[in-house]
Design goal:
220 residues, elongated
């Protein structure tokens, strides 16, 4: 069983030895910034607003079956109508005309996002390549099993529902783990031991008998 030191969830700097085997709190593991505050419901109004917005988007696209092109056109029409009324009514009430915030059309912000996406995509492809080459057979089998399960789940529900379920898990599982950390650690530790025993049996009886050729190393 993994060691565990229970900590107060309200204290983000309190060290704890948790499921992730790091002497850090859940808040620090999630980055310790605004994203962690949202995922752990430090700001309840903001987290609830984001969850309500995601639920509304899922309801429009998956339940009502609203078309995305129609929705974007309606949003653009509403925005243009509001800007038209605001621009023409502003001089009557001695108000300044509307202006587009610079952060929305900032070239630097778009460049930062593009570089971040490119870095993460390149890292993901590199890791996937190493796993596909069979350097770590355990990870290879785990990825194959995960993709197979994901394919089955994706066949039973729509892409929008799958995204919403993932978003819902991201907003509920971290805060639940932080609250019931000791109980989850015990369950995961027991399950991990059982999986390790099962993998050793499969590795000794099946996987070691499969002939494998040498893996070519990448040349940079």
């Amino acid at each position: 069983m993994l060691p565990h030191v229970q900590s107060d969830s309200s204290d983000d700097d309190q060290p704890s030895i948790s499921l992730f085997r790091r002497p850090r709190s859940v808040h620090k593991l999630l980055g310790g910034r605004k994203v962690a505050d949202v995922l752990l419901w430090r700001n309840r109004n903001l987290s609830a607003g984001i969850l309500a917005g995601a639920t509304l988007v899922w309801f429009l696209f998956d339940v009502v079956e609203y078309n995305i092109v129609t929705l974007l056109c309606h949003i653009a029409l509403l925005g243009m109508l509001l800007l038209f009324i605001w621009s023409n009514a502003a001089p009557l009430f001695d108000r300044p005309p509307p202006h587009i915030p610079e952060v929305i059309v900032s070239e630097h912000a778009f460049r930062e996002v593009a570089l971040s996406i490119h870095y993460k995509l390149a890292h993901f492809v590199s890791v996937l390549y190493d796993i596909a080459c069979g350097k770590d057979l355990k990870k290879f089998l785990m990825v194959i099993g995960s993709l197979w399960i994901l394919a089955i789940v994706g066949d039973t529900c729509s892409f929008t529902t799958l995204l919403y379920v993932g978003f819902l898990c991201a907003l509920t599982l971290p805060v639940l783990y932080e609250r019931y950390e000791a109980e989850v650690d015990r369950i995961i530790a027991k399950g991990s031991d059982d999986l390790k025993k099962f993998y050793k049996k499969v590795d000794s009886n099946v996987l070691n008998k499969i002939p494998r050729g040498p893996v070519k190393t990448k040349v940079y």
